[in-house]
Each structure stands twice: as C-alpha cells, then as structure tokens.
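COURSE: Structural Biology Practicum
ASSIGNMENT: Worksheet 4, Part C
STUDENT ID: 0417
INSTRUCTIONS: Below are two proteins. For each, the amino acid sequence is given first, followed by its structure token string. Answer the questions at the end about the second protein only.

PROTEIN I
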Amino acid sequence: MSFFLPLLAVEGTTVDYLVPLAAAISLVYSASRFELTERVFRRAGRLFMTIVGFMLTVLIVLWILASVL
C-alpha cells in the first residue's frame, strides 16, 4: 500500500476531508435510525468501514485504469 501514500498525502485537496466526512455521515445516519448509543456507535463504525472500503476500492480501480491507459 506504500504506492498510495504520495497520492493520499497531497496537502490542500479534498482528500483531506474524506475520512472526517465519512465519519460524520456514518454517525448522523446511524443516529437518525437508532436510539441506543451503543447500537449507534456500532452501526456507525460498520458503515464507516463500508464507506472507506468502497472509496479505497474506487481509488484502486482508477489507479489501475490510469496506469494502463
């Protein structure tokens, strides 16, 4: 994964906001669906990992396509 570090370490881009934005979306969405605090955090963590995993998958696919083309 070290070949993604230069791409993710760019300062002043929207990449800086991806992780906090994913965390905020996960917490707000989970809090709107559940009432118990423990369940909100558990579901928010799962949703956060899903969002980040999807974004990493898209990043890898686009990186591969960019290197092939």
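PROTEIN II
(use this one for the questions)
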Amino acid sequence: MIVSHCRQPHTGMPHVPVCWLLGLLLLMTGITASADAAAPSETVQKTGSLTKITIQGRVVCLHEELHQRYGLDMPTQHRHVYGFKTKDDQYFLLLENNLSGALFQDPVVRKRELILTAWLFPDSQIIDVVTMKSIKDGTIHDLYYYCVICAIRTAVPGPCMCCQDDVERVETPLELLDPSAEK
C-alpha cells in the first residue's frame, strides 16, 4: 500500500506524499505544464529537457491554499509545503536548494511579492529556483544576504560561512545597481 511508504523517517508520522500534492496541483490549475502552454506572464527559454521560466507572485503554503480553495481537510498543526502562486493563479511546487533557501527560512521574504527565475521540470509544475528578486513599492530589488564582517554575499539567511555571525537581508533597488535596468 502506498501509505506505508509515506512515513517520516524519524517520527513515523504519516504525511501527504509529494506525488499526491503534485497531482492535486495539476488538477486544480488545469495546466499540463508544457513549455508551449506557458502563460503570458512567463518568459520561457528551453534548455535540454528543462525549461527556464521567470514568474511573478508570492510564496504560499500549498496545504492552506488547497484548504481555502477546495476545502482540503487539513490538520491545525501541519508541516508547510511551500509553493509559488503566480499573479494568474498558477501554482508551482518549490524545491529547496542553496539558491531558494530564503523562501523556506525567511518569513519576511515569504511575505514579499517576488520574481523568480527557475528551471521547470518536464511534465510537472515543479521548479528549482535559480534567482529571486523582490518587489517593494513597485520597484524590483536585488535580494540577498550579506555578512558585514567578512564581506560575503549569500542567497540564504543564517550564519556566515566564514565567521558564523548572522548575515543580514539586503534588498537593493535594481536602478541603484544599474541605471539602465528596467522596472
């Protein structure tokens, strides 16, 4: 039975398998996730079997979104499964990596409107984030973390890889970085 394979390794507690969530996402969006069906809000570039997309929207907990939209039965205390909801109501499942860690670890970033560039895996709505920008007051900002002691820039919050002091979140308007940058 599939449920027997869907237990957390250390607690033995059942959880919703990713394959079930992905299936629900595909059903609720009605999208086949092919590169040809890309929404107008996406910039699409094919590379090998992956598609590079740029999408704008917000990080959401997929459990809570499915509960709100479709009445999914959800425990009060649930583990968040983060996804990305675009402005045109498409949902993408986020993979956590060294470049997307801020989306999982920083609650301030999760509340921001964001522009993500990511690899879209074939036949899915699963993305692997490559870059992220924030939008504040209608202006696009470069978003990163910085250690003022070591002058090291990183994509994730937490301790500096050198001195172990906490890094600071930095959001710099793109026009300050490049006067010719478009808004």
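ANSWER KEY EXCERPT:
Q1: Residues 32-177 form one domain.
Q2: Strands lie at 43-47, 50-61, 82-86, 91-95, 113-120, 126-136, 139-147, 152-154, 168-173.
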